[in-house]
Amino acid sequence: VSGGTGNYRYHWSTGEKSKTITVAPMVTTTYEVTVTDAGVGGGFECSFTCDFTLLVNDLSCEISGDDRICLGESTVLTAQAIGGSGIYRYQWSTGETGPAITVSPEEDKSYRVTVTDLDENGNPVCHTVCTYDVSVSNPTCSIIHLQDAACEAPGALTFTVDGGFAPYRYEVTT
Question: What predicted TM-score, i.e. pTM, was given to this entire model?
Answer without folding.
Answer: 0.61
